[in-house]
Amino acid sequence: MIKRKRSAEQQVADEAERKAQNPIGARQTIADSHADPEFQENHKRLRAERLARDAGSKNNAKRLDREQMTKTSGEYQPPKPISKAEREARKAFREVDAVKAMSEHALAEKAFAQNRERLKAERLAREAAAGPAPKKQSRAKSK
Protein backbone atom coordinates (compact mmCIF):
# COMPACT_ATOMS: atom_id res chain seq x y z
CA MET A 1 0.00 0.00 0.00
CA ILE A 2 1.48 3.33 -1.05
CA LYS A 3 0.81 6.40 1.07
CA ARG A 4 0.26 9.72 -0.56
CA LYS A 5 2.63 12.47 0.38
CA ARG A 6 1.01 15.01 2.61
CA SER A 7 1.52 18.70 2.31
CA ALA A 8 3.22 20.70 5.08
CA GLU A 9 -0.14 22.15 6.14
CA GLN A 10 -1.63 18.66 6.45
CA GLN A 11 1.34 17.47 8.48
CA VAL A 12 1.07 20.45 10.86
CA ALA A 13 -2.69 19.92 11.22
CA ASP A 14 -2.21 16.20 11.91
CA GLU A 15 0.48 16.97 14.48
CA ALA A 16 -1.77 19.49 16.25
CA GLU A 17 -4.61 16.97 16.29
CA ARG A 18 -2.33 14.28 17.68
CA LYS A 19 -1.09 16.63 20.41
CA ALA A 20 -4.68 17.49 21.33
CA GLN A 21 -5.62 13.82 21.63
CA ASN A 22 -2.51 12.76 23.57
CA PRO A 23 -0.84 15.62 25.46
CA ILE A 24 1.66 13.31 27.19
CA GLY A 25 2.76 11.74 23.93
CA ALA A 26 3.27 15.18 22.45
CA ARG A 27 6.17 15.75 24.81
CA GLN A 28 7.93 12.68 23.47
CA THR A 29 8.54 14.12 20.01
CA ILE A 30 11.61 16.02 18.93
CA ALA A 31 11.46 19.63 20.01
CA ASP A 32 11.02 22.27 17.32
CA SER A 33 14.47 23.65 18.11
CA HIS A 34 15.98 20.30 17.09
CA ALA A 35 14.62 20.72 13.59
CA ASP A 36 16.42 24.05 13.10
CA PRO A 37 19.35 23.94 10.67
CA GLU A 38 21.56 25.64 13.29
CA PHE A 39 20.89 22.83 15.74
CA GLN A 40 21.61 20.18 13.12
CA GLU A 41 24.93 21.80 12.17
CA ASN A 42 25.96 22.20 15.79
CA HIS A 43 24.94 18.62 16.55
CA LYS A 44 27.01 17.28 13.63
CA ARG A 45 30.03 19.37 14.66
CA LEU A 46 29.88 18.24 18.29
CA ARG A 47 29.44 14.63 17.28
CA ALA A 48 32.45 14.79 14.92
CA GLU A 49 34.55 16.37 17.70
CA ARG A 50 33.52 13.66 20.16
CA LEU A 51 34.28 10.87 17.70
CA ALA A 52 37.69 12.39 16.90
CA ARG A 53 38.45 12.77 20.61
CA ASP A 54 37.41 9.17 21.32
CA ALA A 55 39.47 7.83 18.43
CA GLY A 56 42.46 9.87 19.57
CA SER A 57 42.21 8.64 23.14
CA LYS A 58 41.96 5.02 21.99
CA ASN A 59 45.02 5.37 19.77
CA ASN A 60 46.87 7.17 22.54
CA ALA A 61 46.00 4.42 25.06
CA LYS A 62 47.14 1.71 22.65
CA ARG A 63 50.42 3.53 22.04
CA LEU A 64 51.03 3.89 25.78
CA ASP A 65 50.28 0.18 26.33
CA ARG A 66 52.75 -0.81 23.60
CA GLU A 67 55.41 1.42 25.09
CA GLN A 68 54.93 -0.05 28.54
CA MET A 69 54.90 -3.64 27.32
CA THR A 70 58.01 -3.45 25.17
CA LYS A 71 61.42 -2.95 26.69
CA THR A 72 64.57 -2.07 24.92
CA SER A 73 67.68 -4.14 25.52
CA GLY A 74 69.47 -3.36 28.75
CA GLU A 75 66.27 -2.64 30.68
CA TYR A 76 66.21 -5.98 32.53
CA GLN A 77 64.78 -5.58 35.98
CA PRO A 78 65.60 -8.38 38.39
CA PRO A 79 62.85 -9.51 40.76
CA LYS A 80 62.64 -7.74 44.08
CA PRO A 81 64.59 -9.50 46.82
CA ILE A 82 62.40 -11.07 49.49
CA SER A 83 63.36 -10.68 53.12
CA LYS A 84 63.87 -13.73 55.30
CA ALA A 85 60.83 -12.88 57.45
CA GLU A 86 58.61 -12.56 54.38
CA ARG A 87 59.88 -15.88 53.01
CA GLU A 88 59.14 -17.63 56.32
CA ALA A 89 55.67 -16.05 56.48
CA ARG A 90 54.87 -17.26 52.96
CA LYS A 91 56.08 -20.75 53.87
CA ALA A 92 53.90 -20.82 56.99
CA PHE A 93 50.86 -19.67 55.04
CA ARG A 94 51.49 -22.30 52.36
CA GLU A 95 51.66 -25.03 55.01
CA VAL A 96 48.43 -23.86 56.66
CA ASP A 97 46.67 -23.70 53.29
CA ALA A 98 47.89 -27.20 52.42
CA VAL A 99 46.64 -28.65 55.71
CA LYS A 100 43.30 -26.90 55.26
CA ALA A 101 42.94 -28.19 51.70
CA MET A 102 43.80 -31.74 52.76
CA SER A 103 41.32 -31.67 55.65
CA GLU A 104 38.58 -30.37 53.33
CA HIS A 105 39.41 -33.13 50.85
CA ALA A 106 39.35 -35.77 53.57
CA LEU A 107 35.97 -34.55 54.85
CA ALA A 108 34.51 -34.63 51.34
CA GLU A 109 35.90 -38.11 50.75
CA LYS A 110 34.51 -39.38 54.07
CA ALA A 111 31.06 -37.90 53.31
CA PHE A 112 31.09 -39.49 49.87
CA ALA A 113 32.00 -42.92 51.30
CA GLN A 114 29.27 -42.70 53.95
CA ASN A 115 26.67 -41.72 51.36
CA ARG A 116 27.74 -44.54 49.05
CA GLU A 117 27.48 -47.10 51.89
CA ARG A 118 24.03 -45.79 52.89
CA LEU A 119 22.76 -46.01 49.32
CA LYS A 120 24.22 -49.49 48.92
CA ALA A 121 22.47 -50.67 52.13
CA GLU A 122 19.15 -49.18 50.94
CA ARG A 123 19.51 -50.90 47.54
CA LEU A 124 20.29 -54.26 49.15
CA ALA A 125 17.30 -53.90 51.51
CA ARG A 126 14.97 -53.10 48.57
CA GLU A 127 16.29 -56.11 46.64
CA ALA A 128 15.85 -58.42 49.63
CA ALA A 129 12.29 -57.19 50.20
CA ALA A 130 11.37 -57.63 46.53
CA GLY A 131 12.60 -61.20 46.46
CA PRO A 132 14.74 -62.79 43.81
CA ALA A 133 14.80 -61.05 40.47
CA PRO A 134 12.86 -62.92 37.77
CA LYS A 135 15.08 -64.57 35.23
CA LYS A 136 14.77 -63.44 31.65
CA GLN A 137 13.94 -66.17 29.23
CA SER A 138 16.18 -66.28 26.26
CA ARG A 139 14.62 -66.94 22.91
CA ALA A 140 15.57 -70.12 21.16
CA LYS A 141 17.35 -69.64 17.90
CA SER A 142 15.37 -70.73 14.92
CA LYS A 143 17.09 -72.13 11.90
How would you describe the overall organization of this protein?
- The protein has 143 residues and is mainly alpha-helical.
- Helix content is 71%, strand content 0%.
- It has helices spanning 8-21, 23-26, 32-35, 37-69, 84-130.
- The longest helix has 47 residues, at 84-130.
- The radius of gyration is 40 Å and the shape is flat.
- It starts with 7 loop residues before the first helix and ends in a 13-residue tail after the last helix.
Question: Could you name the key traits of this structure?
Answer:
143 residues, 71% helix, mainly alpha
Which runs of at least 5 residues are low in confidence (pLDDT < 50)?
none
Structural class: mainly alpha
Strand content: under 5%
Could you describe the largest sheet, including whether it forms a barrel?
Answer: none
- End-to-end Cα distance, whole Å, is 75 Å
Number of strands: 0
Briefly, what is this?
The chain is mainly alpha-helical and 143 residues long.
List the topology elements:
Elements: H1 8-21, H2 23-26, H3 32-35, H4 37-69, H5 84-130
